[in-house]
């Protein structure tokens, strides 16, 4: 619920212009689709997640996981 509230706030941490300058067109389109989905419904956000994971697979940082495992074992 808090996440939904934060996304609905009127202020912007990053302007659309900043996104256009720093994000390439394919990813910018996906970000804009997310913004539209958030403004519409939970179901559209869920559909966005599925579609986006197919287009841009999740990258798993194995180095981070290995470090986390070492820290957990050291405790």
Give an overview of the whole structure:
The protein has 75 residues and is mainly alpha-helical. 75% of the residues lie in helices and 0% in strands.
Which secondary-structure class do the elements indicate? mainly alpha
Order of helices and strands: HHHHH
Residue share in helix: over 70%
Q: Distance N terminus to C terminus?
A: 34 Å
Measured by DSSP, the beta-strand proportion falls in: under 5%
Number of strands: 0
Output the number of helix runs. Answer: 5
Radius of gyration: 17 Å
Shape: elongated
Which short descriptors sum up this protein?
0% strand; 75 residues; mainly alpha; single chain; elongated
Give a short summary of the structure:
The protein is mostly helical. It has five helices and no strands.
Topology:
Elements: H1 2-7, H2 16-22, H3 25-40, H4 42-55, H5 62-74
